[in-house]
Every structure is written in C-alpha cells, then in structure tokens.
Design a protein that fits this description.
This protein is an alpha+beta fold. It has one domain: OB fold (Dihydrolipoamide Acetyltransferase, E2P). It is built from three helices and seven strands, in the order E-E-E-E-H-E-E-H-H-E. A five-stranded mixed beta barrel has the order 1-3-4-6-5. The longest helix is centred in the middle third of the chain and has 10 residues. The protein is globular and about 40 Å long.
Length: 142
C-alpha cells in the first residue's frame, strides 16, 4: 500500500500548467510546509514536501489555493530521476495528490497572515467554531 496523508501550509501559490494535445490536462505543483513533531536545535521547524495534482484537482488548486493556506492532502509517493544539464543524475520524490481539503476557514487563514499568529485553531487542531467549518469546508476528488 502506498498512501500518504499530510497537513501543512502552502509555501507559495500553486504553479499550474496545461498538457499539450487534444484535451489539455491541468497539472498543479505546490509545496507544503509540514511541521515536525520533534526537532533538533538548529534544524528547520518543518519539512517541505513537493506535491503534484492533475485534472479537476489542479484546476481547483489554481482557483482557490494561495500561499499560507492550511490544507490536508491524501495521495501516494512517487519517485523518479533525471539527468540535469551538468550530467548529474537527480532523484525526485513527489506526493501525487488524490484528495485535498481546506483545514481552516478563509477568515482564520486571513487572520494568521494579518497577525502573524502561528495557530488560530484550538489545541486539538480544530476550528474554534464548528458552524464556520461546515460552511467553508470544501473537498475535491479525482
């Protein structure tokens, strides 16, 4: 089984391109900053995970995802390699996203940007208002 579930924040707006051909397919790439549970002194607080999604999920990401938004994604790990211009073989690891959801309301995300608050949710990682969660939660699937 190859299944990954991650929660983190977008490091920048998604990069979206369209494939060539009769039926162009959207391809979105983004990076999630996922907080580490434990860290050593001098190490970054987060891991930066490269993600890619296709089709309707990619179009959704292009339309609604912005830097700093908190997401939960589910997908699979995909590894690959290529030879760069200097002739060095480069290995890659990406998460191919199959499901993606918002984990906080638009207002909570905006408050974080404005105040620099690290976490506007309660200690359990839940929304402060269950009503706002049901109204703003969106889910996309392949």
């Amino acid at each position: 089984m190859n299944k990954v579930i991650l929660m983190g924040r977008l490091t920048r707006d998604p990069e979206v391109r369209y494939s060539q051909g009769e039926k162009p397919t959207a391809v979105a790439r983004y990076t999630l900053a996922v907080n580490k549970a434990f860290k050593k002194e001098g190490e970054p607080d987060a891991d930066f995970i490269n993600c890619v999604t296709f089709g309707r999920n990619a179009e959704f990401a292009e339309k609604y995802f912005v830097q700093g938004i908190k997401l939960i994604i589910a997908g699979r790990i995909q590894t690959g390699s290529y030879t760069n211009r200097e002739g060095v073989k480069v290995y890659t690891t990406d998460i191919v996203v199959e499901e993606q959801e918002f984990t906080e309301s638009k207002a909570a995300s905006s408050n974080k940007k404005a105040t620099g608050d690290a976490d506007a949710s309660n200690s359990m990682g839940e929304e402060k208002s269950p009503e706002s969660k049901s109204k703003t939660r969106r889910k996309t699937t392949k």
